[in-house]
Amino acid sequence: MVDFIVNAIKKLEVDKRLHSISIKERVILTMMKLKQNSSYAMLGCLFGINSNLCRSYILAFLPLIASVVRPMIYFPTTEEIKNNMPKCFEKFEDVRIIIDCTEIHIQKPKCLCCSFEKFEDVRIIIDCTEIHIQKPKCLCCRICFYSHYKGCETVKFMVGCSPGGIITFVSEPYGGRLSDKFIFEESDLILALERDKDAIMVDKGFLIDDVCSSFGIKLIRPPFIKNKNQLSVEEAALNAQIAAARVHIERLNQRIKIFQVLGSKLQWSLVQYINSIFVIACGITNLSAPILNDERFLSNLNL
């Protein structure tokens, strides 16, 4: 994988200056920062360079590596999804995407203000995830990034995966204060789905019934208790089936957070690079071992 990234960057990079370390070493240096979140001083010692040069190499290579792995986040066709449908989606075969939002905890910035600007029809499962950042000193930044759900400052992403457990969609980054519904509407993800054919699977936080209805997209979401004391037998069974199917997105979020730069509080100096960092993490996750074994797919059960 490293050699593939290195060869691709050699075709992209136009910088012909002499450098203290090779392109391959700079790729490994950047990936070590993402995976272990070690200090620039420590990484500099390992590669025989000073911390300032180490930092400049990492910041320069983040967008380069992101551009190489971005094609790994591929939005499959309906036919491809149906051919790779796990058996836990047997009752949800119209689901095309599962979405989730993720938030990233970031470090406190020094800026005065910031502008971070039965389910066979299921095609995607979506969710939002948050990444912890350092707490801003200015009031404007705190308002933009504060997440009431997490109780701290975060960057928020919406992630979509296929029923087969592949990340197929990553939104732009947003401040933690924004709702899941707002991010979903801003993403225009629904325009990639087929009217009256596809379904989206979400968690209870996605109040997007009106949006999906207007586009003819079926919404699959765990039932609410509302004014009842408990769910009915049918609702409880549906809730269990959806939970078993949605576990894919949770496992993918866990794999993304294996990259310690995302799993711990993100330094404010890296917030402007968060889009590249997150794309790299998602692309590498798609290239790693599948989250489902072959025997878990409906196509293999029918052989």
TrEMBL record:
A GO molecular-function descriptor: endonuclease activity
Keywords: Endonuclease, Hydrolase, Metal-binding, Nuclease
Pfam families: DDE_Tnp_4, HTH_Tnp_4
Occurrences of domain Transposase Helix-turn-helix (ranges): 20-67
Cofactor: a divalent metal cation
Domain (DDE Tnp4): residue spans on this chain: 126-286
Top-level taxon: Eukaryota
Protein name: DDE superfamily endonuclease
Organism per entry: Popillia japonica (Japanese beetle)
